[in-house]
Amino acid sequence: MKVYLKVHIANGFQTIACCDEELLNQVFKEDNLRIEISTQFFGGKLIYLEEAISILKEASHFNIVGEMIITKAIDCKILPKEGVKFINGVPIALKMIF
Questions:
Q1: What's the Rg (C-alpha) of the chain?
Q2: In terms of Cα–Cα distance, which of 42, 37, 40 is closest to 26?
Q3: Average pLDDT over residues 63-68
Q4: In the 8-state DSSP scheme, what is residue 98?
């Protein structure tokens, strides 16, 4: 199982963007919510799920999208189940620690 992972650095903060492989270049909308899983933001390296989890464990900021990565993040206690939102059935989660 693989996911796309990209590291963004801005203003001294590192943000990890990660999505399930099959979600790249898709847009999801529901009511007034919208998320675009763009190559520009999410389309980094295609890596194995376990490698992504190791990176996310160390991250203070992340944006993750997809059933596979979200489920694994919850299982590994990186993310509480209550922190997950859904847009058109697709789970998304953000983590920001300042």
A1: 12
A2: 37
A3: 97
A4: -
Find the CATH number of the domain harbouring 39: 3.30.1860.10
Task: Quickly state the pLDDT bin for 11 (edges 50, 70, 90).
Answer: confident
Are 84 and 91 contacting, i.e. CB atoms less than 8 angstroms apart? yes
- pLDDT tier for residue 98 given thresholds of 50, 70 and 90: low
> b/e string for 25-63 if b means 16 or more Cβ within 10 A?
eeebeeeeeebebeeebbbbeebebeebbeebeebebbb
- Provide the percentage of residues in the chain whose pLDDT is more than 70: 99
Domain count along the chain:
1
Q: What angle do CA 49, 8, 80 make, to 5 degrees?
A: 50
**Identity of residue 49:** L
Who's near 29: CB < 8 A, 6+ residues apart?
Answer: 87, 88
The 3-state DSSP class for residue 12 equals: coil
The three-class DSSP label of residue 38 is coil
DSSP character at residue 25: T
